Amino acid sequence: MQITLELPEDIAQGLESKWTDLPRAALESLALEAYRSRALTAAQIRRLLGFETRMQVDVFLKQHEAYDFTAEDFEQDRETLRQLRAKEAQR
After folding, report:
1. Is the dihedral of CA 68, 47, 19, 7 positive or negative?
2. How far is residue 90's CA from residue 80's CA, in Å, rounded to a whole number?
3. pTM of the prediction?
4. What is the tens place of the pLDDT at every residue in 34-85?
5. Residue 29 near residue 20, CB atoms below 8 Å
């Protein structure tokens, strides 16, 4: 699917002064919002933006502070760390 945006010339020029590749910036903005609202997965972001690896997606998401890490994830990681430390202490 191809989507066309029509912008007033002065607005387009202002945006292009900030983002040299305005079509790419628009696509990335769409991808980020879709990811944040859970409309797209990281795998879909990878395809949409043409990244070769998941690590590139992770870097992109981190640069834009789009983390997919909930408080529940944090608690689970904390519990895993506690269990690993307990095992290490038993040795």
Report:
1. negative
2. 16
3. 0.71
4. 999 999 999 999 999 999 999 999 999 999 998 776 777 778 888 999 999 9
5. no
